[in-house]
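Reminder to self: tokens first, then the designed residues, so the page reads top to bottom the way the pipeline ran.
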């Protein structure tokens, strides 16, 4: 059985659609693999951020994108937050958004 990818809200999907084409293409390849093989692809595609939060590590010639996700029952992956990375370290603000949304998903979905 394949996995299903859902989006936390329309804003997350719009943020991904606004990514440069090369980064978006990498993201699309990774999510296709996740649908078939599950979310635990490992480096360099996905990485655990702790406490049930994971990131998709998308890159292209235009830069680096990150999309945070969690999993919920029935083989569903929820993309919680996406942004273009501008520094070496993931900004705390971006992580806080993802953790807050993950807590919302785990309690209300």
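Designed residues (109 positions):
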């Amino acid at each position: 059985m394949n996995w299903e990818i859902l989006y936390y809200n329309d804003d997350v999907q719009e943020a991904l659609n606004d990514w440069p084409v090369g980064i978006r293409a990498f993201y699309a390849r990774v999510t296709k693999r996740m649908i078939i093989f599950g979310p635990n692809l490992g480096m360099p595609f996905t990485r655990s951020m702790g406490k049930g939060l994971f990131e998709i590590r998308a890159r292209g010639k235009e830069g680096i994108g990150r999309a945070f996700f969690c999993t919920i029952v029935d083989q569903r992956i929820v993309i919680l937050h996406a942004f273009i990375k501008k520094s070496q370290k993931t900004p705390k603000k971006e992580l806080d958004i993802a953790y807050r949304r993950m807590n919302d998903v785990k309690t209300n979905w």
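The chain has one domain: 4-108.
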